[in-house]
Amino acid sequence: MLTPRAKAFWREFLRGRGAGPIVEFALVVPMLLVIMMGVINFGRFYFVKNSLVSAVREGARFAAVQEKPCEKQDDIRLKVINAFAAMGGASIAPAKIKFPACDGLILIGNDVIVKVEEYPVSFVLGAGTTINLQAQAKFRWELSS
């Protein structure tokens, strides 16, 4: 129940302007919310992508100084997972961390490559849509001849 003073305020507010400001507000607010959610989602995707690239780079850097990097794949995976977790990221499935330069336990060439495939990131307040991010880092193997 409105007090007489509140009734007078609303009567005066609506008398001079009509419903124009209310309609304008109703038209503008959804557009502003969509833009704001887009900015939030873009910032979050950029942060996760940057964190993923940094974690993969950390794993490749670790692998580059190993004597036999293809035999240390579990240690390299753990390094990537820990580096990503330290940056606030959710866990990476170990099976998604690949070593394209390794043929079994033998290194092909003089480069160590660490790659994460299909890391899913979902929208903050979206329709349940996910985007799969990828990251790859390549370092020269320090112990190559």
Write structural notes for this entry.
About 50% of the residues lie in helices and about 20% in strands. The protein is rod-shaped. The model has no long low-confidence stretch (mean pLDDT about 85). The chain has three helices and five strands, in the order αααβββββ. A three-stranded antiparallel beta sheet has the order 1-4-5. The protein has a two-stranded antiparallel sheet with strand order 2-3. Helix 2 packs antiparallel against helix 3. A hairpin with a 7-residue loop joins strand 4 and strand 5. With about 140 residues, it is of the alpha+beta class. It has one domain.
Dominant shape: rod-shaped
User: Strand percentage, roughly?
Assistant: 15-25%
| Low-pLDDT sequence parts | none
Number of strands: 5
Helix amount: 40-55%
Overall mean pLDDT stands at 87
Descriptive key words:
single chain; 3-stranded antiparallel sheet; 145 residues; alpha+beta; two-stranded antiparallel ribbon; rod-shaped
Provide the fold topology.
Layout: H1 4-17, H2 20-64, H3 73-86, E1 97-98, E2 102-103, E3 106-107, E4 111-122, E5 130-140
Antiparallel strand pairs: 1-4, 2-3, 4-5
